Amino acid sequence: VMQKKLFLLDAYALVFRAYYALIRSPRVTTKGKNTNAQFGFINTLTDLINNQKPTHIAVCFDTHALTERHTDFADYKANRQETPEDILSAVPDIKRIIKGFNIPCIELDGYEADDIIGALAKQAEKAGYEVYMVTPDKDYGQLVSEKIKIYKPPYQGGNIEIMGAKEVCEKWGISNVSQVIDILGLMGDAVDNIPGIKGIGEKTAISLLQEYKTLDNVYRSE
After folding, report:
1. Residues 6+ apart with CB under 8 A from 1
2. Sequence-ordered list of residues with C-beta below 8 angstroms from that of 58, at least 6 positions apart, any chain
3. Which long-range CB contacts under 8 A does 153-158 form with residues at least 24 apart?
4. Which of 92, 115, 116, 192 could form a disulfide with 60 if both were Cys (CB 3.0 to 4.6 A apart)?
5. What is the CB-side half-sphere exposure of residue 33 using CA atoms within 13 A?
């Protein structure tokens, strides 16, 4: 029986990456429209379809609706700069192209793309799929398991990186992928404007977890 392989793409993470990868040599149409994001995203998509031969595929988008994270933490993503106009105008094109490939675009108000990917990945794992979360985003490490991996598309001529539990643990210097949550809790996440514990960066967070195993134990040790 052919192994069912599901690829779930984190649309905005890949769109931003595509746009900035070509920032020095922009792809501009005769009418002056920048198509970096469209060009780079579709390259990633076709490369993936041709070389990885997924049996199932979906692209997950964020919506503009607020999520629970915004209500729980008012400053969530408050430091984000405005999305460049070129990216905003690229998204409808990209959605049209994805639909042209007959690939579903999945989005749900109140949830971010990574929430949707996490939920679908866990459901698909139970149904016997091998799941690849297509994203350059490190936070996905917490979702990795025997059947769920991170697929980092090649960047600027680099190689594909596929990360299972072993690779995630080696990258962070931890013994279990569940500790990714604790590392991010300790060091915070500047990208999303989430404060960690003052003065604790990645190295300190890792050494604390190597000693105390969990975030709760770190607090108890004080």
Report:
1. none
2. 6, 7, 8, 9, 103, 104, 105, 106, 120
3. 153/14, 153/44, 153/47, 153/48, 154/47, 155/17, 155/21, 156/21
4. 116
5. 11
Query: What is the residue-wise DSSP string for 191-207?
Result: GGTB--STT--HHHHHH
Closest CA to 77 of 195, 215, 184: 195
**Sheet with strand 105-106: strands edge to edge:** 105-106, 56-60, 5-10, 130-134, 148-152, 161-163
For residues 153 and 158, what is the distance between their CA atoms, to the nearest angstrom? Answer: 9
* Residue 82 DSSP code: P
Torsion of CA 140, 113, 162, 206, to 10 degrees: -10
Q: What is the mean pLDDT of residues 128-140?
A: 92
Task: Look at 44-48, 135-139, 166-170, 193-197 and tell me which has the smallest mean pLDDT.
Answer: 193-197
**Cα–Cα distance for residue pair 203/13, rounded to 1 Å:** 25
Ramachandran angles phi, psi of 46, nearest 5°: -70, -40
Provide the mean pLDDT of the chain. 86
Indicate the DSSP class of residue 13: H
